[in-house]
Design brief:
Blueprint lengths: L2 H18 L17 H20 L9 H19 L16 H17 L1
Helix pairs in contact: 1-2, 1-4, 2-3, 3-4
Length: 119
């Protein structure tokens, strides 16, 4: 998995947090790539790759998905990465879509759409 793909994912996350988070986000939410833990970098690249593959195998028809469907896909892929890297994650780290705050759902949808545009 590419470092560049992980950076694109992270940049899209930071842009989404900056746009949608109510108030001042936690520093870790907007930390630059260089300050992001290795497991998060690896996870960002993995989820980018999952979204890219999904867009490609659909023949580009992911453009017909709703923003919610796109965001749900990113959120689910991210949860799988949390389970892969964090032995006993806090429940909020692996919360289902309906339990995520609105700002995070919007940021996840933004990530999908950013990756979709890259392809």
């Amino acid at each position: 998995m590419s470092n560049e793909q992980g950076r694109i994912f992270r940049d899209a996350w930071i842009a989404g947090v900056t746009k949608h988070y109510p108030g001042e986000p936690k520093p870790g939410y907007v930390a630059p790539w260089e300050e992001t833990p290795d497991w998060e970098r690896e996870s960002a690249a993995a989820v980018y790759e999952q979204v890219r593959a999904f867009v490609e195998v659909s023949g580009g028809n992911t453009s017909k998905l709703s923003r919610e469907q796109k965001g749900r896909f990113v959120a689910l892929c991210w949860i799988a990465q949390i389970y892969r890297h964090v032995p006993d994650p806090k429940p909020s780290y692996v919360a289902d879509w309906d339990d995520l705050p609105g700002w995070q759902r919007e940021a996840d949808a933004d990530i999908f759409e950013r990756i979709e545009r890259e392809i």
